[in-house]
Design brief:
alpha+beta, Cyclic Phosphodiesterase, Chain: A, Rossmann fold, 3 domains, six-stranded mixed sheet, five-stranded antiparallel sheet, 15 helices, 20 strands, globular, SH3 domain
Length: 573
């Protein structure tokens, strides 16, 4: 990441970041709030509240010198621990509406506790980290809509009344930061890669964020904007139609989060066991914990183990890097495979129907293998207990499952159940036909640990080419229900699928309707390799809850091809 800033003109500027302390909902309440945000945007257009995720502001933005940020982390952890037993198991929220604002107000008794918490953090941060922190002393609130057209008020109110503020919720105190230089700028997200054609243009990759100052655009040619790259800090022109509007908070950094965990909700504790061991430390179970700690504790305590479902996209596929003609780049004159770059797989597994079928059923790249194993090792570090492993029949998914299991050190214990019903939306298949996947026999002969006794829920022959969105949603919902029924044991059901799998498998599980087909593709496009969602069963409440995944995200930059002859020897006679 630092390397990408090598040409950043502001790299050595002593500009401190701005920090804010928020209380954020997770769980069912968060899901309901997200549904409201989506539907309100669809029916009434975007308003100011869509710029930032759902939250209650405890301390608004303040500056802190870089060398003192670690002190903020320690202060937040200490204050969270001291308030853990005071923190209410639920927060009273009542709906309030006006012509320009819609949201939940926090009840007075609970607001007083939160204000006391904010004041304690503010006091310590001011004293120990030399920060001027102002705790929020006004009416504490969770905004639903802000600065909307007055004629939309009734529609927004009706949508808001569908939210039950008493839904299951785990509240998290989170410390965020933003770059103070770009507070009043618009934030754009690159949809496509753009390679500069002129010296004053900016290099962007899909997913990059660009800050745009509205006051600088008046003299820019139509169809272009001038902006500053969030990734590199460099400024230049980019074609406007290569970008889309992003939310203000998309570029914020979450530094630390601590969950207030009611003891009765997540832990069972006998009277002769006053402490719970967590990652080698002995702590009181009602103390606040980071969200990942909470999840790893839930999954590592066998006596309290619940069922969970972890759905992840496969690792980096080889054609994602080298394009659809990747196989032609590696075939010798006599038709043998010879990798042309170290990110091509070193070998391809043997298949009887010929090497050509890998074009439509591509393997992982070398980096994809590394990514998958890294995720497995991270799950092992968090003591996640995987009881079942399911995979789409696509080779890239099976390889991801195999290498995740290797990272977990479970490749000889847990076998991969290949389920055709987990394949992606067939409308997206470029060939317009169902690919010829490797057979279970071929996979086993290639040393993949396949459960050959498993009987699929949806046979491969039942997959319909170019199926409708409704058919895909119905298939996904049906296969997930069958998998959950077939896996009664506690622990995690790990499913390796596609970008489309994260929404289509988890939403029916937690009781949410399918996304509209119009925005489904946009959502899927943003899901990276090894992107994941995690759901946990609340058996006593007979429902599933979406919570933070047990491991952190995996982020890395692009690494372009390098030709030493053209780059180093250029200009020499």
């Amino acid at each position: 990441m630092l390397h990408s800033h090598c040409n950043d003109p502001s790299l050595d500027d002593p500009i401190p970041q701005e920090y804010a302390l928020y209380l954020c909902p997770t769980g069912h309440l968060f899901n309901c709030l997200q549904e409201f945000r989506k539907e309100s945007k669809r029916q009434c257009g975007k308003n100011r509240a869509h710029e930032i995720f759902p939250h209650i502001t405890l301390c608004d933005f303040f500056t802190c010198e870089d060398q003192k940020v670690e002190l903020l982390y320690d202060i937040l952890k200490r204050i969270c621990n001291s308030f853990a037993q005071k923190f209410p198991p639920t927060i009273s929220l009542s709906l309030h509406s006006s012509t320009s604002y819609l949201g939940f107000f926090v009840g007075d008794s609970h607001a007083n506790i939160l204000k006391e918490f904010a004041a304690a953090f503010s006091s310590e941060a001011s004293a120990l980290a030399d920060c001027h922190v102002k705790p929020c002393l006004k009416q504490l609130h969770l905004t639903l809509a802000h600065k909307f057209c007055p004629h939309h008020q009734k529609t927004l109110e009706q949508l808001a009344k569908c939210i039950n503020p008493e839904e299951t919720c785990l509240w998290v105190a989170a410390l965020y930061s933003r770059d103070m230089r770009f507070v009043h700028y618009q934030t754009l997200r690159a949809v496509f890669q753009y390679k500069p054609q002129n010296i004053d243009e900016l290099m962007i990759n899909a997913g990059d964020f660009i800050y745009v100052n509205p006051t600088q655009q008046s003299e820019v040619s139509e169809g272009w904007v001038i902006g500053t790259s969030h990734q590199s800090g460099c400024q230049g022109f980019i074609p406007e139609n290569y970008t889309e509007r992003a939310n203000e908070s998309d570029t914020w950094v979450k530094h630390r989060e601590y969950a207030f965990v009611p003891a009765s909700k997540f832990f069972t504790q006998s009277t002769n066991e006053p402490n719970v061991k967590l990652n080698g430390e002995v702590r009181n179970p009602v103390m606040s914990r980071s969200v990942t700690d909470v999840l790893s504790l839930q999954l590592s305590q066998n006596t309290n183990l619940r069922r969970g479902m972890l759905v992840m996209r496969h690792g980096e596929r080889v054609d994602q890097v080298f394009g659809k003609s990747w196989l032609q780049q590696c075939l010798t004159a006599d038709g043998k495979y010879d990798r042309a770059d170290l990110n091509f797989p070193s070998t391809l597994p043997k298949r009887k129907d010929g090497i050509k079928h890998f074009e439509h059923d591509p393997p992982l790249s070398s980096c994809g293998v590394f990514q998958s194993r890294l995720i497995g090792e991270a799950l092992l570090d968090q003591e996640v207990i995987v009881s079942y492993m399911y995979s789409s029949p696509a080779l890239r998914c099976i390889q991801t499952a195999q290498h995740v299991l290797q990272g977990l050190k479970l490749d000889q214990k847990v076998k991969i159940r290949v389920e055709p019903g987990l394949f992606e939306w067939t409308k997206w298949e470029a060939s317009r036909v169902i690919p010829n996947f490797m057979t279970l026999t071929e996979l086993t002969e290639a040393s993949y640990n396949i459960d050959t006794s498993y009987r699929e829920n949806i046979p491969l022959s039942s997959l319909v080419p170019s199926e409708s969105y409704e058919e895909y949603v119905s298939r996904s919902s049906a296969v997930i229900k069958e998998i959950v029924t077939a896996c009664p044991s506690k622990g995690v059901i790990l499913i390796v699928g596609h970008g489309s799998s994260l929404a289509s498998f988890t939403r029916p599980l937690i009781g949410l309707p399918a996304r509209d087909s119009s925005d489904f593709a946009n959502v899927v496009r943003k899901i990276p390799s090894l992107g994941m969602c995690f759901c946990e069963e609340l058996k006593e409440e007979k429902k599933w809850l979406m919570v933070n995944p047990p491991v952190k995200t995996l982020t890395h930059g692009a690494n372009a091809a390098f030709n030493w002859r053209n780059s180093i020897m250029e200009g020499l006679s």
